[in-house]
Structure formats: C-alpha cells, structure tokens
Amino acid sequence: MTTEQKLDILKECGAFLEGHFLLSSGRHSSAYCQMAKLQQYPDKAALVLADVAEKLKEMNVDVVVGPAMGGIVYAYEIGRQIGRRAIFTERVDNVMTLRRGFEINKGERCVIMEDVVTTGKSSLETAKIIEEHGGTVLGIACVVDRSKGTSPLPVVASALQLDLPNYDPAACPLCQEGKLEAVKPGSRKF
Fold first, then answer.
1. What residues pair up with 88 in beta bridges, in sequence order?
2. Is a pLDDT exceeding 70 seen at residue 115?
3. More confident residue, 178 or 87
4. Of 3, 43, 71, 179, which has the maximum CB count within 10 A?
5. 4 and 12 in contact (C-beta within 8 Å)?
6. What is the pTM of this model?
7. Contact 159, 38 (CB under 8 A)
C-alpha cells in the first residue's frame, strides 16, 4: 500500500486533522494525527499497519509494548499480526508504569508501538520501564512518524513518515496570526 493510500485512509477516518494544535510535547502544529479515529475501523487499521508488521516479523520481537493511551490498540494489532505478546504501560500520577500483572522478562526483545512519534517522550518513558524489567528495547514502531529523524530512540518501522511542521509556542506562526486558538486533542497532562 502506498503512502498516499494510507494517508487517504487516515483522512477518510478523520484521523488526519488540519488547524492549530497543542501537541503532547508542548509544541504547536498546523496538523494533528488523531489516531483513535483510525481505531474505529479495525480492517483499515490492519491494512495501514501491514507493512509495519512485516518489518517487525523480521526483527524477532518477543513483546510489543504500547504506551497508554495511543499505543494500546496499535500494540495489540501488531502483536496479533506478528503472533507475539502485546502489553501496555500507563500513567499513574502522570508517571509511566507497568501494571495489571504485565511482565517483561529478562532478555526479552521489545518494540515500543506508538500511534504517533514526534519527540519520542512517551517512548523514552516506556523504554525506561522495559529496561528496568530486564528487557531489551529494539526501537519504536508507529503508525505515523513525524519525528524527522530526531527521535531519541530509533524508529525501526512506521506506516507513514509525515513531515508536518511543529513549532516552539513562542515562535508559532499560527499563534502570531491570532486567528485560531490552539486545541489540545491529546491525553497527556502538562
């Protein structure tokens, strides 16, 4: 499936938005990927993620770890497609943790499955949890990689790489125009 076809699916689902957004990283952008909208359509999500699953099959992954909230469903779908265990981390008092009886065994090869990667902050928090439990972090897989190669962990597989602008709030041209107030669609608390 081509990049254009995948982006068309995101647009059809309402997962690709344009406007003025406050990202979970604290930066601003004129585009936002609301990946929960794609999750409404499991068949379309499976199609979009098929290439990611193929790449991860080659990497001998033991566990797919999805940071809550955005990575949970995508970790499950990738785990299903590659026939591996899928778990998730979640925030307790705004700190990423491993709960619900999930375990990462010493030496298990883990990939972090994200919905969108911009700065890699959630992935770093999840990597710390994996390493504290003795697992090995192979890298990040995601639906949309908008990091432009700046993620602190390697993005080993993505369905889409999108070069979407993002700005420091003090230098945001959308704020300077003053036409649209920034909307925060994500779940992370600041």
1. 66
2. yes
3. 87
4. 71
5. no
6. 0.88
7. no
Task: Put the strands of the sheet holding 85-92 in their side by side order.
Answer: 95-97, 85-92, 63-67, 109-117, 136-145, 155-161
Q: What is the 3-state secondary structure (H, E, C) of 81-144?
A: HHCCEEEEEEEECCEEECCCCCCCCCCCEEEEEEEEECCCHHHHHHHHHHHHCCCEEEEEEEEE
Q: Which has the closest alpha carbon to 158: 67, 16, 56?
A: 56
Backbone phi, then psi, for 68, in 5-degree steps? -70, 150
Q: pLDDT class for 188, splitting at 50, 70, 90?
A: low
DSSP code for 66: E
Q: Give dist(CA 72, CA 65) in Å, integer.
A: 8
- Residue 114 is which amino acid? E
- What does residue 93 show for φ and ψ, rounded to 5 degrees? 50, 40
Residue 45, classed as helix, strand or coil, is: helix
- 28 exposed, middle or buried (CB, 10 Å; 0-12, 13-18, 19+)? buried
Query: How much of the chain, in percent, has pLDDT values that exceed 70?
Result: 97
